[in-house]
Amino acid sequence: MDLTKRYERDDRHVPRAVFVCVLALVLATLVLEIKYDFLPLMSIADPTGDLTTLLLAFVTILTTWLVLYFLGGLFERLTTAKVGSHAQARSMWKLIAYAVWILVLSIIFISMIGETGSLVLSIGLLGAALTFVLQKPLLNVGAWALISYRRIYRIGDRVAFGTVKGYVLDITTMYTELREFGEWMHGDTFTGRIVTVPNSLIFDQPVCNYTRDFPFVWDEVVNLVTYESDIEIAKKYLLESAKEVVGELMEQNYERYRKRLGIRDLDQLLLKSPELRMELADSGVNVYVLYFCPVELRRKIKADITEKIWTKFMSDPSVGIAYPHMHLVGSVGEG
After folding, report:
1. What is the pLDDT of residues 118-153, one digit of tens each?
2. What CA–CA distance (Å, rounded) separates 80 from 88?
3. Fewer CB atoms < 10 Å away: N or C end of the chain?
4. Where are the domains of the chain?
5. Which CATH fold would you assign to the domain 134-212?
6. Angle, in degrees to the nearest 10, between helices 50-83 and 14-36
7. Fold of 216-314
8. d(CA 131, CA 146)
């Protein structure tokens, strides 16, 4: 699936960028007026210099936002081809942008505090207050750091938080946005909703990542075949159907998948082509065909295999699908 089209740069922030640019110019003009008094119709006094420092801090913050905004699109366009997807390029830029913000805000904070002794005391008091008042937001920030460092998931990954499943659209310091699938829709069909999940949920709930190591998942199609059926023919039909749909795809990606396994011993369990499994049931024999496939095509591939199996079964009377029913033995008397 081409993720580039799904993550094209959003132009909704253009009016915001224009507003920030105008505001930064106005504040910069005020700073110059205070220092050089070049506007004839305006005179602003700042004997302590606090107003100038505050205005410069705001100008720095606004300028940083503008620079990051315009460089973000350029960075994503230049690196998408190199890293393999637009989603990964955006994830890298997010980390760079947060690092720049931390540096800029730290410099502003230190320059406004002044002396070292006051700085240490202020940092201690500020840290204690933030820890007490902002417990949940700090948990979200800590979870964001863990997500970024451990790469639990990235933009473009397909994940599940508890009962919420979707593609990761954005990861901020506080929240993760998902394009939801599942819920009231069968299989992995999109619902059309955007779900916002607090980052701190990774501390309380398991996070399932479908695409972290490799964009393939395992699946199976099962058919309950009657005991009267020719089981060898039934097995043949299931295996043929799966091979027709995913056999070539599995063979082409076997080596790539094997190299990405975290534990090498697992390659003994990796299938190179579809395989069968059987299980006795009350009214028949469950015959399973196992395979792996691209995560975004799982439901379609399963439907294609099921359709081929159904067609083959319906054309051969020696194979029957078991279903719940009742047999009456003997005769029913009158009355």
Report:
1. 555 556 655 665 565 556 777 888 888 888 888 899
2. 8
3. C
4. 5-132, 134-212, 216-314
5. SH3 type barrels. (2.30.30)
6. 150
7. Alpha-Beta Plaits (3.30.70)
8. 18
Residue 121: the pLDDT is: 54
Using DSSP's 3-state secondary structure scheme, residue 1 falls into coil
Q: Which residue has the tokens 């473009």?
A: 156
Confidence (pTM): 0.62
246 CB-contact burial (10 Å; exposed 0-12 / middle 13-18 / buried 19+): buried
- DSSP H helices in 7-49: 14-36
The string of pLDDT tens digits covering residues 81-108 is 776 677 677 777 877 887 888 888 878 7
HSE (CB half, 13 Å, CA atoms) of 232?
Answer: 0
The DSSP H or E segment spanning 104 is helix 86-113
Calpha distance 257→146 (Å, rounded): 26
Tokens (6 digits) for 148: 């970024």
Integer Cα distance of 222 and 245 in angstroms: 15
Q: Which two tokens stand for residue 273?
A: 């082509």
